[in-house]
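Input (structure):
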């Protein structure tokens, strides 16, 4: 579906993800979700479109914007199924919306009617999956810090000169990896220590230290 048509027929847009939850860090990208009403020719026949990706990608993660638009029918079905990512949007504050219309205001006024007994299990499952993701990122953050500390104390110039150690492992002839329970980052074996530290610092900023968030 033409993206201009999506914008023209949009009835609601709001921020979501970490910026909605207050868990965003400096490197976090921005996520938005919108609702649109497709034109008549898309509601009947073979042109039906339910989800349109309007994201913009950049090399710098924090400048990336993820934008997902749902048709009103698709959004309503997901909300009735108590999909946590969708249901939460019915409860956002006004200042977290970037577009609202009389139709979306009426939709949000009916939010309690979308709730069912299934909502408890759906949100518990969602919460546990999100916590698991954060624990993995915390593990990565800790390993990156240890790897950086190890490189800081080394007096060599390139990764291929590293002695056997618990952090950097030769995984192929030309590849060295910072590796924990899974591979965090791969380096060409000829990478300089200075370059490796720069790459790890960038990855560290991306993950962020989420210890405080997880312990709340």
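Output (sequence):
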């Amino acid at each position: 579906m033409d993206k201009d048509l999506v914008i023209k027929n949009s009835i609601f847009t709001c921020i979501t993800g970490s910026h909605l939850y207050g868990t965003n860090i400096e490197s976090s990208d921005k996520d938005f979700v919108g609702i649109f009403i497709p034109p008549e020719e898309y509601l009947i026949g073979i042109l039906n479109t339910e989800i349109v990706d309007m994201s913009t990608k950049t090399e710098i993660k924090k400048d990336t914007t993820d934008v997902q638009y749902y048709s009103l029918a698709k959004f309503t079905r997901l909300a009735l199924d108590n999909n946590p990512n969708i249901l939460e949007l019915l409860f956002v504050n006004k200042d977290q919306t970037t577009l609202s219309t009389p139709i979306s205001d009426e939709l949000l006024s009916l939010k309690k009617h979308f709730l069912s007994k299934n909502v408890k299990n759906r949100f518990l499952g969602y919460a546990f999956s999100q916590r698991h993701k954060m624990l993995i990122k915390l593990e990565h953050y800790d390993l990156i810090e240890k790897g950086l500390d190890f490189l800081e104390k080394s007096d060599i110039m390139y990764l291929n000169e590293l002695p056997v150690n618990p952090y950097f492992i030769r995984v192929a002839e030309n590849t060295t990896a910072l590796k924990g329970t899974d591979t965090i980052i791969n380096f060409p074996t000829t990478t300089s220590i200075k370059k490796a530290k720069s790459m790890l610092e960038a990855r560290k900023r991306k993950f962020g230290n989420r210890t405080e968030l997880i312990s709340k």
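Notes: Residues 127-215 form one domain. The chain has a mean pLDDT of 84.
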